[in-house]
C-alpha cells in the first residue's frame, strides 16, 4: 500500500498530552508578507498558540527549530483560530482567537534578525471582548455587505448568536428552539448564517432578519412587542438531514453560484443556496473532518474527507477519485501554499500530530529477486506429499488436532474426597424435606514446578449438588510451592443429580522470555463423590415398575462387601438384597442372584436406576481388580428400555412448549398493561376530567394476570430444569446399556456421549431435542449409513425447535437398530467417506 500513502513533506508533534479539535487549525498569511506564502496557525485546548512556517531541507524531514515562528501560552483554552480583516481602519490581516469566555484579536509581526538566530516574531493584542456566555464556535465575513472589513459572529453553548463589528458589540439573538449548538458558517452570497440544529435540520437565517429581530436581552415577550415594536426571528429555509452534523463549509468558486457542504455522521450533503439538495454521498467509514477545496472542471467541486480509519478520501462531487493513507486520524484538514508548493494538505490529529503532505506515487525502488527455476519432478513430489499426509494422519490419531504439551510439569493438581461426613454439616437452604442433609469435604492440592501467574481454581459439580465455595485464586510467585484448599459439597434439591463426578479446573499463565505476561494454560482434575452423600439405606421393595438385569462373567459378590454401610449386618440372609433411599424420597432396590451371575436393579422411576447401576459396575470392577482378576466383564442382554426413555423426552419437550406459551401470554399481558397505563395517564393529564370507564379495574386485573403468569413462568422453568436433570440421568443410563449391549469401546461410548449429551443446560434459543437430533442424524448419515444414497442427504444447517419428538424418537430407534446389526461408531478422517455397511442376513 505504499503507493497510496500520503507523501510526508513535513511533520511535527505538538507539545505533550495536548488536545485539539477541528477549529484549532488555520492557514493564512497572518504576518502580511504579501508573497502568498501561508503560515500554519495551531491553537490547543491547553492554551498554547503556535505559528509554523515549514521549509524542510529534504522531503519528509522533521521539524527544524526555525520552523516554529511563535509559541505563546495564552492560559485559557483555545477553541478556534481564524484570520481576517478584524481591525478597523486597515485591511491588514489579523488573528482572532476564541476562548470560552473571551474573544481576542492579535496582530502578528516579524522583525528581521541580524544574527544567525533568524527573524523574531511577536503578537500584539489589538482588542478583546469579554463574553457573558460560554462560547462554542465562531464564523466571520462581510456581514450585511460591508466592504474592506470582516465582522465576527460567535455562537454560545445555549444557542445565542453574538455579532461583533470589530471593536464593538453589535447585537445578540437566540436561535429559536435551540438545545445544543451545531456547526456555524456564513454565506456571503446570500448574506445568511447556516447552522444545524439539535433537531438535525440545516437552518438558514438572514443577517438582516437577525439584525432587526427582537434583542436577546429582551427575550421575554412584552405587551409592546405584541403591538409590533419588534420582529420575530424566523428561519429563511430548513432541510432535515436526519443526522447530526460535524461541520459546515460554504464554497463559491464563481460569483454565479455557491454551494453549502454539510458533513454528517454517515453522509455528506451538497446544498444549493435555497436549501435544495444538489447531491449527497453515503460514506463507508465514519468521517472525522472535511474540506471542499477547489473546482477542477465546470460545475464540479473537489472535497477532502478524513475518516477514523486513518484515510483521506478525495471526491469529485460524489465520485471517489483518490484515497490516501495517513499516519493518524485527522480532526482538521486545510489546503494551502507553503514554500511555493501549492496544494499542500495540512492535517491535525486530536493528540497533536501536525503533518504537511501531498498526493503522489513515488516509485518503489525495491525489486523482487528472481526465483531460481528448475524442472519439477512430479513423482518425487507425489511421494513426499503422501509421506506428509501419513505423518499428519498419525499425529491426528494419537494427539488430536493440537499437539499435546506436558502441562503437568508446570502444575500438578490432585483432589481428595474425605471418607467421612463433616462433623457439622455445611448444608444451608436445603429443599430436601425432613431428611438430614450431610456434607462432605473435598481438598484440592496444587503444586507448581515453576513460577506462575494468575492461577484460578474453578470447581464444578452437577446440580442439585452445590459447593460452599467454587472459586479460588493463587499467586505462585516462587517455584515448588504447595497450596491446599478445602470446600464442602452437599445436596440442595429434592431430586438426584445426573452424576457424582466433580471437576476442578485450574487456569493459569506461564511467563516466558518472549511473553512476560504469560501464556494461558488450563489443567483439570476430576474427583468422585460418595453415593452416601445423596442416598440413605432403605427398605428393599419386591415390586417395581422399572427393572434392569446386568449379567457378569464371575460369580456374584456379597452386596455387603460392595456397599458397606447400606445393609444391616445382623440379617445375614438379606445380603443379596439391598435398598437405597435417595434424599429426595425415591427408592431403588438391588438384588444379587444366588444361582446365576446376575444383578437386578429396580425402581419406580426409570431415571433413578442410573446412579445405582453405575455405582454397582464401578464397585464390581474395583472389587475384582483388588482380587487380581483382569477379565471381569459386564453385559446387558435385555430389551432396550426406549419407551421409558421416550416418556421422559416427551415430558421435557412438553415443558418447553408450555414455557413458550406462557412467555407469549406474559408478553401479551405486558403490552396490554402498558397500553392501559398510557390511557390512564392521558386521562389524568387532561385538563377537563373525564370518567375512567373502569380502566382502573382493568389495570388491576391485568396486573394480577401479569404477576400470576410470571409466577407460572418461573415455576415452569424450575420444572424444566429438574426434568432436564432427570433426562440426563436417563440418557447416561441408556448410553451405559448400549455400551454393555454391543460391547462398545471407550472411544465409541465417548461418541455416543457427545451425541446424546451436547448441552450442559437448556436455553430458549437452543434445546436438547434439536441438538441431539442433528447429532444422531449426522451419525446415521456417515458412519452408520446403509448406502451411498443416505450419505448424499443434506442436513439442515439451522437448528430450530421441532413441532414434536417423533423424528427424534425415530432416529434414536434407528440408531439402536443399526448398532444391533453390526454398525460401529467412528469419527476418524476415513469416516468422511464411510464404507457401505453389510447387514447380516441380507
Automatic annotation (TrEMBL):
GO CC annotation terms, alphabetical: BBSome
Domain PTHB1 GAE: 437-527
Coiled-coil intervals, chain numbering: 371-398
UniProt entry keywords in alphabetical sequence: Coiled coil
PTHB1 N-terminal domain mapped to chain residues: 1-363
Domain PTHB1 platform, chain residue ranges per copy: 530-637
InterPro entries found in the cross-reference section: PHTB1_GAE_dom (IPR028074), PHTB1_N_dom (IPR028073), PTHB1 (IPR026511), PTHB1_CtH_dom (IPR055364), PTHB1_hp_dom (IPR055363), PTHB1_pf_dom (IPR055362)
Domain PTHB1 hairpin, chain residue ranges per copy: 639-742
Domain PTHB1 C-terminal helix bundle, chain residue ranges per copy: 744-819
Pfam families referenced in this protein's UniProt entry, alphabetically: PHTB1_N, PTHB1_CtH, PTHB1_GAE, PTHB1_hp, PTHB1_pf
Name of the protein this chain belongs to: Bardet-Biedl syndrome 9
Lineage, opening ranks: Eukaryota, Metazoa, Chordata, Craniata, Vertebrata
Amino acid at each position: 500500500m505504499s503507493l497510496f500513502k500520503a507523501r510526508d513533506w513535513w511533520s511535527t508533534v505538538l507539545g505533550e498530552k495536548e488536545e485539539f479539535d477541528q477549529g484549532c487549525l488555520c492557514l493564512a498569511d497572518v504576518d502580511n508578507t504579501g508573497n502568498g506564502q501561508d503560515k500554519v496557525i495551531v491553537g490547543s485546548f491547553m492554551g498554547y498558540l503556535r505559528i509554523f512556517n515549514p521549509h524542510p531541507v529534504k522531503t519528509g524531514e522533521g521539524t527544524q527549530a526555525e520552523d516554529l515562528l511563535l509559541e505563546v501560552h495564552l492560559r485559557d483554552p483555545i477553541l478556534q483560530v481564524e484570520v481576517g480583516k478584524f481591525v478597523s481602519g486597515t485591511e491588514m490581516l489579523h488573528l482572532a482567537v476564541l476562548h470560552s469566555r473571551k474573544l481576542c484579536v492579535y496582530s502578528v509581526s516579524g522583525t528581521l534578525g541580524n544574527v544567525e538566530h533568524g527573524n523574531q516574531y511577536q503578537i500584539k493584542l489589538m482588542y478583546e471582548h469579554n463574553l457573558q456566555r460560554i462560547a462554542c464556535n465562531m464564523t466571520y465575513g462581510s456581514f450585511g455587505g460591508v466592504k474592506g472589513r470582516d465582522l465576527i459572529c460567535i455562537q454560545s453553548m445555549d444557542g445565542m448568536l453574538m455579532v461583533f463589528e470589530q471593536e464593538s458589540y453589535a447585537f445578540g439573538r437566540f436561535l429559536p428552539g435551540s438545545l445544543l449548538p451545531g456547526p456555524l458558517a456564513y454565506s456571503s452570497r446570500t448574506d445568511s448564517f447556516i447552522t444545524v440544529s439539535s433537531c438535525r435540520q440545516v437552518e438558514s437565517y438572514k443577517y438582516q432578519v437577525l439584525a432587526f429581530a427582537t434583542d436577546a436581552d429582551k427575550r421575554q415577550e412584552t405587551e409592546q412587542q405584541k403591538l409590533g415594536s419588534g420582529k420575530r426571528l424566523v428561519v429563511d429555509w430548513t432541510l432535515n438531514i436526519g443526522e447530526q452534523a460535524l461541520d459546515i463549509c460554504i464554497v463559491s468558486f464563481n460569483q454565479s453560484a455557491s454551494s453549502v457542504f454539510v458533513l454528517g455522521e454517515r453522509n455528506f450533503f451538497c446544498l444549493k443556496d435555497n436549501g435544495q439538495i444538489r447531491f449527497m454521498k453515503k460514506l463507508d467509514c465514519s468521517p472525522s473532518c472535511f474540506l471542499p477545496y477547489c473546482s477542477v472542471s465546470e460545475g464540479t467541486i473537489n472535497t477532502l474527507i478524513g475518516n477514523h480509519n486513518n484515510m483521506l478520501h478525495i471526491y469529485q462531487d460524489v465520485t471517489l477519485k483518490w484515497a490516501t493513507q495517513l499516519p493518524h486520524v485527522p480532526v482538521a484538514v486545510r489546503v494551502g501554499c507553503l514554500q511555493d508548493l501549492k496544494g499542500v494538505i495540512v492535517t491535525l490529529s486530536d493528540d497533536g500530530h501536525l503533518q504537511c503532505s501531498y498526493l503522489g506515487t513515488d516509485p518503489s525502488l525495491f525489486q523482487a529477486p528472481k526465483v531460481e527455476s528448475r524442472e519439477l519432478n512430479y513423482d518425487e513430489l507425489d511421494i513426499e506429499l503422501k509421506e506428509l499426509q501419513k505423518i499428519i494422519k498419525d499425529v491426528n490419531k494419537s494427539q488430536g488436532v493440537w499437539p499435546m504439551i506436558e502441562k503437568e510439569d508446570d502444575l500438578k493438581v490432585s483432589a481428595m474426597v474425605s471418607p467421612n461426613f463433616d462433623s457439622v454439616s455445611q448444608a444451608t437452604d436445603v429443599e430436601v424435606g425432613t431428611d438430614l442433609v450431610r456434607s462432605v469435604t473435598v481438598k484440592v492440592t496444587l503444586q507448581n514446578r515453576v513460577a506462575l501467574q494468575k492461577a484460578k481454581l474453578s470447581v464444578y459439580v452437577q446440580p442439585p449438588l452445590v459447593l460452599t465455595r467454587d472459586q479460588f485464586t493463587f499467586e505462585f510467585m516462587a517455584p515448588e510451592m504447595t497450596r491446599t484448599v478445602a470446600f464442602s459439597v452437599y445436596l440442595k434439591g429434592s431430586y438426584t443429580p445426573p452424576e457424582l463426578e466433580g471437576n476442578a479446573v485450574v487456569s493459569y499463565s506461564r511467563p516466558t522470555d518472549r511473553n512476560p505476561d504469560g501464556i494461558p494454560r488450563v489443567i483439570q482434575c476430576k474427583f468422585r463423590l460418595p453415593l452416601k452423600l445423596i442416598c440413605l439405606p432403605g427398605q428393599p421393595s419386591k415390586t417395581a415398575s422399572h427393572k434392569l438385569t446386568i449379567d457378569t462373567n464371575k460369580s456374584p459378590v456379597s452386596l455387603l462387601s460392595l456397599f458397606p454401610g447400606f445393609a444391616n449386618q445382623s440379617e445375614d440372609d438379606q445380603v443379596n438384597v439391598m435398598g437405597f433411599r435417595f434424599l429426595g424420597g425415591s427408592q431403588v432396590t438391588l438384588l444379587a442372584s444366588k444361582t446365576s451371575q446376575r444383578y437386578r436393579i429396580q425402581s419406580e422411576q426409570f431415571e433413578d436406576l442410573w446412579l445405582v447401576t453405575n455405582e454397582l459396575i464401578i464397585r464390581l470392577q474395583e472389587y475384582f481388580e483388588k482380587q487380581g482378576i483382569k477379565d471381569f466383564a459386564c453385559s446387558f442382554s435385555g430389551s432396550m428400555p426406549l419407551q421409558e426413555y421416550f416418556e421422559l423426552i416427551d415430558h421435557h419437550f412438553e415443558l418447553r412448549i408450555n414455557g413458550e406459551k406462557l412467555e407469549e401470554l406474559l408478553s401479551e399481558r405486558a403490552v396490554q398493561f402498558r397500553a392501559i397505563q398510557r390511557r390512564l395517564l392521558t386521562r389524568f393529564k387532561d385538563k377537563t376530567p373525564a370518567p375512567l370507564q373502569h380502566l382502573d379495574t382493568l389495570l388491576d386485573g391485568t396486573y394480577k394476570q401479569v404477576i400470576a403468569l410470571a409466577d407460572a413462568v418461573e415455576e415452569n422453568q424450575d420444572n424444566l430444569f429438574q426434568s432436564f436433570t432427570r433426562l440426563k440421568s436417563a440418557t447416561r443410563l441408556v448410553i451405559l446399556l448400549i455400551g454393555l449391549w454391543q460391547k462398545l469401546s471407550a472411544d465409541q461410548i465417548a461418541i455416543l456421549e457427545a451425541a446424546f449429551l451436547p448441552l450442559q443446560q437448556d436455553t430458549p434459543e437452543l434445546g436438547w431435542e434439536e441438538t441431539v437430533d442433528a447429532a444422531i442424524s449426522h451419525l446415521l448419515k456417515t458412519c452408520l449409513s446403509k448406502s451411498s444414497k443416505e450419505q448424499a442427504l443434506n442436513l439442515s444447517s439451522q437448528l430450530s425447535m421441532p413441532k414434536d419428538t417423533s423424528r427424534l424418537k425415530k432416529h434414536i430407534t434407528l440408531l439402536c437398530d443399526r448398532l444391533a446389526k453390526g454398525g460401529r461408531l467412528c469419527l476418524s478422517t476415513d469416516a468422511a467417506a464411510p464404507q457401505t455397511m453389510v447387514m447380516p442376513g441380507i
